Amino acid sequence: MPYRSGKRIVSLFVPTAAIAAVSIILSTLILSMLYIRQFGHILEVQEEERIRGAIQLFSQIHFGSVPAFLSIMEEGPVQDFLFGRKSLKERALQALKVLDRSLMNNELIDSIYLYSTVSGILSTRAGLELEELTDPTLPSFLEHEGNVGFPLYRLRRVIVRGELAPRNFFTITFGSISQSPHRIGYALVVNLSERKIRKALWGQTVSSLMYILDGEGRFLSHPEPSFFGAHAKEDPRFASLIQDPDDKGVRTVKDEHGKRWIATWIDHPEIHWRFVTLASEDTLFGPIYRVRNWAVLASVGVLAFAILGSYLISLQINRKLQHRQMILDFLREEVHQDGNGIEGEVFHRTFLSRWRKPLAIAIGVWDGITGDGKEGEPLHFVEIVEEGLKKERIEAVEVIELGDRAVLIYCMPLEKPEVVFSKLQENLLQGYGIKFGGYYIDRSLGAGELPQGYTCLQLAFRTDYLRKRGELLPISCGGEVMVGEAESFDGQASIASPLDLKELEQAFRTGNPSEAKKALFEIGECLRRAKDPDLFRYIRAAIGYRLPEILREDAELLLPGGVKGFRATLAGLDHLDDLCGYLGSVVERLQERSFIHQGRKKVELVKRVKTLIDQNLSDRSLGTEKIASEVGLSAGYLRELFKNVEGVSLMEYMGRKRLEVAKNLLQTTDLPVREVCDRAGFLNYSYFITYFKKNTGYTPREYRDHLLRQGT
Fold first, then answer.
1. What is the rounded distance in angstroms from the CA atom of residue 72 to the CA atom of residue 43?
2. Is 449 found in the same domain as 466?
3. Can you give the pLDDT at residue 556?
4. N or C: which terminus of the chain carries fewer CB neighbours within 10 A?
5. What residues does 120 pair with on adjacent strands?
C-alpha cells in the first residue's frame, strides 16, 4: 500500500542519514589529524626538491650562458664595431645581427649593448644609439666598472626610455674601459631579466614563495620587484635566516603582524647565495581547520534535521503520489472495475465532494525554450507548471506527470478554460522562456464527465504532430467516445492512405525544385489526413536516410549543417509544420544546385570565405572549423572546395595573408616584432619566426633591417 511504502522510505532514510552524518564527522576528524601530521614532512621534502631543482637550473643558466656570451666578443662583426673597422653604418648593421641572434637564442636576455669609444653604443633595443640612450645609466655604470674580464653579476634597476616602471637586471660585462685617450675602450653588456630568470627557475606556485639572497643579505630575487637589491633586514621574516650558519634547514618565522611562516633554505654549493621558500601556515592548515569545524557542525545539523524532517517529507510525498494515482484511476474509470471496494467508494465520494463544477482539463506539452529561456538551469516541467498556476492565483490545481513531456492539469476556474490556460501559457513564456502548448476541453465539465474528457484529450494528443509548437488547441467533448477511436488510442495504428516518396526522391535526383515543392506538399496533406504518428515518424526517418544518398557529393552543401546536422535536426522535429518548413529550406537550396555544378556558386562561396578571412585575420582562433560553421559547410568540403577553386589549400592561403600583413607592418611601422605577430594572427611567437624565415629567408628583425638598408 502507498502509506506502507511511505513508512518504508522513512525507515530507510533516517538510519541512512544518521550513518552518513556520523561517518562524515569521524572521517573528517581522522583525515584532518593525519593531514596535519604528515603535511609538515611532505612540505619539507617538496620544498627541498623545488630549491635543489632551482639551484641546478640556475647553475646551468649561469655557467652555461657565460661561454656563449664570451663567444659574442670573438665574432668578426662585433670586433669590427668595437675597433672601428669599415664604415659605421655597415659595421653597426652586421654587429646588430650577431646581437639579435644571441638575443633570440637565449630567452632570459632582456637586452644586449655594445660599447666602443670609437663607434658609440649599439643595442638590441634601438640599434645604433647616437643621441638619446635607451639605458641612460649605462655610461656611468661602465665608467664605474672600469676594466672587467671575468663575468660577474651586477644588480641594476634601470628605467628604460619610454617606460615608467624600472626593470631589474642581472648585468654581465666583458671588455676594457680605458681612461687613456690613446686606447680604445670597449665593453659587451648583457642584461639578464630577473623576472624571466625567476619564471624559468620556479614558475608559478600557490603553496609557497621563493627568494634568493646573496652573501651580503640582499634580495637577488623577490616576488615584489621593488625589493630587488634591498637588504633582507627590511623583512622581519629573514632577520634570523641571514644569520643562520647552516647551509640548509627548516624553521618557523614570523612577520611584523605575527603571522607564522614555514621557511626552508639551501645554500648554493659554489656561490654564496641562499635560496629560501616561505609557506604560510594559515594558507596550508587554515582551510583544513575550517573545513573540519564546518563539516562537524553541518553533519550534526544534518542528523538533527534528518530525524525530524525525513518522516514528514516522506509522508507528504507519499500522500501526494497516492492522491494523484487515485485521480488517474478515476479519470481512466478504473475505480468502477472495483466498485464494491471500500477504497474506491471513499475516494469517489471525496473526489466528487471536493471537485465541484466548473472543472477544466488539459494536456500540456513543453514545446521548447525561446532565446531568452534559462537553458543552463535544470528545469522540472511539472514544478514549473505548478509555479505558473500559483503566480496566476489559480487554486485547487493538480498537475500530474504522464511522461517526459506531457502533464495533465485540471482545476476549478472562475474564468473560461481558454482564459485560464492562456494565462498559464503566457506566464511560462515570460517567466521561464518555455513554449507551452497542448490541448484543453473547450467547456466546463462536471466531475463525472472528467474520464470522458480525459479520453478525448488523449485521442487528440495522439495526433500531436499536426499541432504547431507553442499552440494550445481547444477540443470539443460531447457524447460517447467511439470504440474504434479508443482502440486507436490504446496503441493500434490507424490505417493511413498510401504514401510514396518516389516523386520527392526523383525531384531531388533531377534537381527540379518545383516538383520537389509539389511532392512535399502532397506528403504533408497525406500526413494531415492520416493522423497517424507512426506514419509521421516513418516518413521523417525515411527522408533523413534517403535524401543524403540521392544528393551524394552535393549533400554536404545542400543539406543544412551537412549530412550529420541534417539528420540530427530532422530527428528532433516533432511537428508536421516544422518538418515541412525545414524541408522547404532544403528545396530552396536545391534551386542553387545548377549554379553549383557550373562553378558559379563555388566561386561565390570561396569569395565569401576570403572576405571572412580578410576581416578576421588577427583572430588566432580563426581556422577551418570556424570558417566552415560561418558559411554553413562541413570542414572537409570547405577544404576541397577552396583547393579546387584557388589552387592552394585554405591554411596555406591564410598563412600567406598573415605573412603579407606582417611584412607590411614591419615595413610601415616601428611596432615590436611580438606585437606584429599578434596583429597578424599567428598562433605563437616561435612559429611566427620560423614561418617568416622559411618564406622570406629572413627573420622579422633581419627583414626590417634589410628594408632599412634598402631605404638608405
1. 43
2. yes
3. 76
4. C
5. 116
